[in-house]
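pinned: reference chain
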Amino acid sequence: MESSIKIGDCFDLIKEQQDNSVDLIITSPPYADIVNYGKNISIKKPSEYCDWLLPLFNDIYRVLKPSGSFILNINDNCSGGYRNPFIYELIYRSQKETKLKFYDTYIWHKMNGIPNGSPKRFRNTTEFIFHFVKDQKHLKFYMDRVLKEPAESNKQRAKYKWNIKNHGKIVNGERIKESFMPDQKKTDDFQIRPDNVVRFHTAGHARDNTIKHPAPFYKDLPAYYIKFLTDEGDVVLDPFGGIMTTGLACKELNRNFIGYELNERYGEFGKKRIEGEQLENYRVVQYDLDGNYIADYKNRLEASKATGVDDGDIMRTYNRTKFDSRGGYIWKLEPEYVINQYDLQDKLLNTFTSIGQAEKHLGHTTHNHIEDCLRKGNQTSYGYKWKLEKNHFNKKINKAIQQELF
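pinned: its structure tokens
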């Protein structure tokens, strides 16, 4: 598996891509008038969204192979009390102004979606996923890779005789009802065709990292489409790569990945994730109101189940968007592994969440030496020992850097 991550404007970068060279393009562009995606990235209003995005569709058609697909995750919004119809305009104009063919629509049911605050609207727990193709006659599509397990009640029902109404033999002018016993072997392991509603966790569920991208993919979402629309060794492109979650899915599924990202900070972070340099595993840590450690959890859903605190409130707490504490607890998002600084007698001095944080504390501007300690086995630098170790969360740390860490 190879990956290529380029920092820059996808509208320019895709022009460098060869014709008929990509098997799948899957992406989620910045949503209209909703989210701030960082420096140098302008937020498009609904009235200008189609004019902004549609030129990219022409290059997407050009670079797709005849068997390729374009999967677009996008959502509308409300303003002035009404829904903006620009999404529907985008689909309509794409069929008039580009050569891409509108193949199908999927609905993403966002599990554990955050409710809106309007007393006159239901919870918004869905988003659109649109499927475009270049030529449906050559479309690569493997239904068998995403078949679903039937409900247990359906499995049990299949073990009994089936009465076939209105399809029996005709005797003396009347159709006779027939019954038969299904093949037991087939009923034990049969699977069913999936519907067009896909169920994945919300984007917020994937915010368990310190970058806090405003709208990251949950990895299972791109992986789902990569599985049934591509083969191993195929090329997958994400023009709005963000922190390159699509690239992680490609790495796990042995696909080649190309990612574009305008925000340099997101792109570099995504590159480190794919290369394994950025620690992926974070824990949701629970403290009492005095800052004493209580427990840590794999994610906010696990924490919510154990404590009864709403998982959305837990996320808002550790992302510092609304609360300092919730449910009588302080919640923090902390890496599962940390960089520990020891003196030459192996006495623990400080704990850091990144090499950059350690360098800032030491007053040095380069992190190559500490990086060598952690990755190449040379454990001494700047007169200290440096080790990548499991985070115990409740260890006392140097008060001088406590504010930097938390």
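why pinned: The chain is about 30% helix and 25% strand. Confidence is low (pLDDT under 50) at residues 205-211, 395-406.
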